[in-house]
Amino acid sequence: MKMERNITVNEAGHLVLGGVDATVLAEKYGTPLYVMEEDKIRGAMRAYRSSIEKFYGGNGRICFASKAFCCKEMYRIADEEGLGADVVSGGEMFTALSVGFPMEKVCFHGNNKSDKEIRMALENHVGRIVVDNMEELDRISHFADELNVIANVQLRVKPGIDAHTHNFIMTGQIDSKFGFALETGEAMAAVKKAIETPSVRLCGVDCHIGSQIHEVTPFVKAGEVMMDFIASIKEETGYEIDELDLGGGYGIRYTSEDDPVPYAEYMEAVSAAIHAKAEKHGVKVPFILMEPGRSIVGEAGTTLYTVGAVKHIPNVRTYVSVDGGMGDNPRYILYQSKYDFLLANRADAPADTTVTVAGKCCESGDLLGENVPLPETKAGDIMAVLSTGAYNYSMASCYNRNPIPPVVMVKDGADRVIVKGQTYEDVCRNDV
Ligand code: LLP
Questions:
Q1: What is the 388 CA–ligand 1 centroid distance (Å)?
Q2: Which is the catalytic residue, given 63, 362, 398, 428?
Q3: Which of 275, 316, 307 has its CA nearest to residue 377?
Q4: Using one digit for the tens of pLDDT, what is the confidence trace for 94-128?
């Protein structure tokens, strides 16, 4: 039986993920448990890649933004699917390196890269260092000289687009810690400096306008602003920019309130705008890079919990507490993010009660959702939270010394651990 959102429920009324009964997974591995569906991850990667073929004639690359879900297996899968990767720290770079990820396909981001991270990127021939500020450009050139290498860089530009308020006023986004502002002339000054720096090769310009964006227009605007900038670089300096990195940010479905635009629609609209600007300005269509994170892994993930205490407070609310919470999913406490919930062991039961789902941390704000529709819930039920594949495991902590749960990958009825769960020994491993 198929339900809304392509949720599969078997004859026992249990949620099925990647062909595996979720209650069997909960029993086998314990809870909390992160479950990732491999077909969804690979399917999203393939959809992005085919859009690059279709709308840019293959002249581009998808780099998985690994901050959304970083572990060795994800870099292996991204590599198998022909993707590059966006890394944003020495730790992510190290994880990619440890599985032999092709470093020439890596973009290294960050607004405050350390000397150690810059050296690490240069020593390991990371494809692109995305330069955030002038001081960083100096340090990159210094270490490139020292190591006798050429640093291939992109410049991170603030295109002046605030996607979340629909405010395209150019000054709106000067107030961002990331990148060079266009309207102050800072971005053009950085371009000139990069061109003049012998140990640096300016390959491209980069922007990223936000995350969980559901509209096409901000991406189109950003593409246009960046193409105008590429044209003005050519006009002022004669230098032709080869690459345009458009960042990530494509929205996904967390609840029925979200209505994501299919990737191909974004890609088609942005590609049309870029081609039109190239023609208008007489510049070439650059090699296009995109860095989706959430939209590759978000909907592929489900977190399973076991329900414990159920507390009815008459005329106030009912708290249903689970055995995880802000440690494995800090997105509610950080952003009041909404999710869909269901009971994996009674997935077809009507959701006729409204509850607050609470975590087990010693903190009142440790909730996973408020006003959550669920069937009558009791201790021992297995709760599933959907669309937890992005920014859950990657932002997890062992607050209260609750160990970070394992991640299990499911596909075609088979399950395998891709990240082991922490043990109590692990959580005090570095204590002295
Ligand atoms: N590229 C750059 C330069 C980025 O900063 C980001 C995300 C991405 C790509 C990927 O964006 P995505 O496709 O995943 O939207 N922790 C927050 C999200 C922070 C996003 C940070 N940058 C959350 O849980 O919603």
A1: 14
A2: 362
A3: 307
A4: 999 999 999 999 999 999 999 999 999 999 999 99
